[in-house]
């Protein structure tokens, strides 16, 4: 730095500069009010104005010189700051370089105590996990060797693959043989099942025919019963109408309603009476009327008895028909149950034979070779 000394701005100087600037501004405002021809209302002093202008120019020159001095000081200070910053950077760089040289020369990573933890070549320098299957370093807790991870793994795997291939071929041959045997058994089972189906179909056909015959006979019987019931009701209705008509005729023509006593006989004939002289019927007429009523009562009782007998006869015939139909239906059910039991017994025996045959085939298949199995199977089937 040069030997020239420079003034430093103090707070007192700053306050003085501020007051001068304030007075300068007030003076400028006053001059505007005075020298404005439109707004001026008082006279002016030229000499005073010249003095003021001269003073103002001196102040401006002084202020300008002061500002230039401040600017020169600021530039000088900036230069000094740049020089100091460059010196600090250079010193810091030299210090970092000296530290790096010192670390590379006297503080190498290999000399540290924890270098083995961060050594980039540690894996290359280290021994392999195991050098042989009987390495003493391969302890149980190290978990470096498991089942199937020996050094002869490739040869052993090749041998196992060959063994698996032989086993696979043997299983394929056995599967083909068992498949052929299963097909034979399925063919035999299918044939037996078809025979059973034909027998069941024939029995079902017979059952359907029998059921149709029974239904037809029952239908005919019910139809005949309905026709007889309708005819019987018609006859009964007709007979009742005739009886009612006869009864009405007898009552109208009888002595009970005519009231023709002998003393009321008319002179115009025995069949005429005088209404105003009639005093009632005679005893003979009353007896005759009672006799006729008794006869009518007896006739009605006889008709009721005949009707009751006919009803009992028809009820007995209907009960006998229903009983016969019930017995016939029970017989049909009994025959169907016997047929079903016979069919179930046949199916059960065939299923038992088939299960025994299948068990025998499985035992022969598991205990004997293929050739002996076929020989024994043919013998068993015969």
UniProtKB/TrEMBL annotation:
<dbReference type="InterPro" id="IPR008805">
    <property type="entry name" value="RIB43A"/>
</dbReference>
<keyword id="KW-0206">Cytoskeleton</keyword>
<comment type="subunit">
    <text>Microtubule inner protein component of sperm flagellar doublet microtubules.</text>
</comment>
<dbReference type="Pfam" id="PF05914">
    <property type="entry name" value="RIB43A"/>
</dbReference>
<dbReference type="GO" id="GO:0030317">
    <property type="term" value="P:flagellated sperm motility"/>
</dbReference>
<protein>
    <submittedName>
        <fullName>RIB43A domain with coiled-coils 2</fullName>
    </submittedName>
</protein>
<comment type="similarity">
    <text>Belongs to the RIB43A family.</text>
</comment>
<dbReference type="GO" id="GO:0160111">
    <property type="term" value="C:axonemal A tubule inner sheath"/>
</dbReference>
<keyword id="KW-0963">Cytoplasm</keyword>
<keyword id="KW-0966">Cell projection</keyword>
<keyword id="KW-0969">Cilium</keyword>
<keyword id="KW-0282">Flagellum</keyword>
<keyword id="KW-0175">Coiled coil</keyword>
<dbReference type="GO" id="GO:0036126">
    <property type="term" value="C:sperm flagellum"/>
</dbReference>
């Amino acid at each position: 730095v040069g030997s020239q000394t420079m003034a430093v701005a103090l707070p007192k100087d700053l306050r003085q500069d501020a007051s001068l600037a304030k007075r300068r501004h007030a003076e400028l405002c006053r001059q505007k009010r005075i020298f404005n021809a439109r707004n001026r209302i008082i006279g002016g002093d030229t000499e005073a104005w010249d003095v003021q202008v001269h003073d103002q120019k001196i102040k401006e020159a002084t202020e300008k010189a002061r500002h230039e001095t401040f600017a020169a000081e600021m530039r000088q200070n900036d230069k000094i700051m740049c020089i100091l910053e460059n010196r600090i950077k250079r010193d810091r760089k030299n210090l970092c370089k000296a530290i790096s040289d010192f670390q590379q020369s006297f503080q190498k990573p290999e000399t540290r105590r924890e270098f083995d933890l961060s050594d980039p070549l540690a894996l290359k320098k280290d021994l392999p996990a195991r050098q042989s299957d009987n390495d003493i370093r391969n302890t149980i807790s190290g978990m470096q060797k498991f089942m199937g991870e020996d050094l002869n793994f490739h040869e052993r795997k090749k041998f196992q693959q060959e063994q698996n291939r032989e086993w696979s071929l043997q299983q394929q041959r056995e599967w083909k043989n068992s498949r052929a045997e299963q097909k034979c058994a399925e063919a035999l089972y299918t044939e037996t099942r078809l025979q059973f189906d034909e027998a069941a179909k024939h029995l079902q056909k017979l059952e359907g025919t029998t059921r149709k015959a029974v239904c037809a006979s029952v239908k005919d019987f019910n139809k005949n019963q309905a026709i007889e019931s309708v005819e019987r009701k018609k006859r009964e209705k007709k007979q009742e109408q005739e009886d009612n008509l006869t009864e009405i005729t007898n009552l109208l023509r009888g002595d009970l309603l005519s009231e023709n006593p002998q003393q009321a006989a008319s002179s115009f004939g025995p069949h005429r009476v005088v209404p105003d002289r009639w005093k009632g019927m005679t005893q003979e007429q009353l007896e005759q009327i009672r006799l006729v009523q008794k006869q009518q009562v007896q006739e009605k009782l006889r008709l009721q008895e005949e009707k009751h007998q006919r009803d009992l006869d028809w009820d007995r015939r209907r009960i006998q028909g229903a009983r016969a139909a019930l017995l016939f239906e029970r017989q049909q059910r009994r025959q169907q149950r016997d047929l079903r039991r016979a069919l179930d017994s046949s199916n059960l025996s065939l299923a038992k034979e088939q299960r025994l045959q299948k068990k025998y085939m499985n035992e022969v298949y598991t205990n004997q070779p293929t050739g002996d199995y076929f020989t024994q199977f043919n013998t068993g089937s015969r």
